[in-house]
Amino acid sequence: MKLTAQQKELFEFYELKAQALALDSKKPIGLCKNHYINEILEELNLNTTKNKKTYEQYLKTYKRLLKHNENIEKNEVNLLLHKAKTKATYDLYRTSIKFCLINEIKDLQKKSDEQRKKKNIEEMKEITNKAFELAVLLKEQFDINIQKPNFKKNNSKKKTLKKLENIENIINGLTEKQQAKYSEQLLVYSLFGLRPAELKKGIELKAVYENDNYFIEAKIWGAKVNKNAGQEERTCKTNIDFNNTLYKQFFLKILKQNVSGKKFEIVQTQQDYKALTQTLSRKYGKNVSLYSFRHKVASDLKKAKVDDDTIAKFLGHRTNKSQVNYGNYHQGSNSNKSFSATATHEIKHTKNKDFTYIYNKSRILNNNKTLKPY
């Protein structure tokens, strides 16, 4: 593996830091290297996932990239990012590579510790050095030396709004059997714009009458949730047009069950999800999907001039920046819609980040003049 001049420089820098720490703390060099391995992993701030499907997707993506690019070395793995054609693919590749490399480093740390317990000192040192080198290379490629390509904005999901018919036409266009099976699921999508993965978890609905208005309230358990993003749980409420027969019947059905003391729950199976997706695709083309309703609801929220925090909570976001990718004011409904939402976390107000970071040796050295023992 041939390192670039920049990689050699950074590697030598971390070697010196580890040696200085070992000298100052009077601890073995291996422990000091392990300290900086953990520091680098923490700096990269990759949110680990406990979701088995997400983990498998990252692993599958990483293995596929390596399989089709067999000559790629670990010190140039970020070149695989240039295979991405869209921002979404780029983000998937980047997260998958980082996630799997971090797991490799952690596995090496475990193996090193196992050798230490067996008193196989030379093997322990060799494995620790491998983990140390991989960690430094990971930092160089994903913290310092990575520049995000400029992708043309692809608002294809927003564009689906132009082809999305109103909910009455969509449901009335289904067969009688399809209406019986999918109407309520489609009504939920049209009211709350939730993700398909959230409806698969199941939601609870309540019928509410207040201030001469009819509302449907949904308790939703979030998808795309980790320690820094998403809402584990949110409660969204929106009013309905009682002159609309479909919404009126839906409201009364929920109310009847609420009055009887039972929860009104809707769960979408994977089979239902596939069937609905195929039905929409056959009728409206591949550009219209269940996610189109999410953009429609986002447009309605913006048209109703709902504040940013409520929009974020309603859509299941934890920051106010994500909503810019959903819907638009001009395609919102003209009806007098009312929305409210509460969620697990308060909304963080963020600015767009500049992903360009140029390596500056003097700045790194100046930031690390004092080498403190841990």
Structure overview:
This protein has about 375 residues and is α+β, with helices and mostly antiparallel strands. The chain is elongated and about 80 Å long. α1 (about 5-25) crosses α5, α2 packs parallel to α5 (about 120-145) and α8 crosses α12. The model is unreliable at about 350-374 (pLDDT under 50). The longest helix is centred in the N-terminal third of the chain and has 31 residues, at about 85-115. It has a 5-stranded antiparallel sheet. The protein has helices at about 5-25, 30-45, 50-65, 85-115, 120-145, 155-160, 165-170, 175-190, 195-200, 245-260, 270-285, 290-305, 310-315, 360-365; strands at about 205-210, 215-220, 235-240, 265, 340-345. β1 (about 205-210) and β2 form a beta hairpin. It has 14 helices and 5 strands.
Strand order across the largest sheet: 4-1-2-3-5
Summing up helix and strand content along with how strands pair, one would put the structural category as alpha+beta
Number of strands: 5
Sheet having the most strands: 5 strands, antiparallel
Shape summary: elongated
Roughly how much helix do the residues carry, as a percent range?
A: 40-55%
Low-confidence stretches: 351-374
Helix and strand element order: HHHHHHHHHEEEHEHHHEH
Whole-Å distance between the termini? Answer: 32 Å
| Number of helical segments with 4 or more residues | 14
Determine the strand fraction and express it as a percent band: 5-15%
Mean pLDDT: 83
Query: What oligomeric state do the depicted chains represent?
Result: single chain
Features:
single chain, elongated, alpha+beta, disordered C terminus, 14 helices, 5-stranded antiparallel sheet
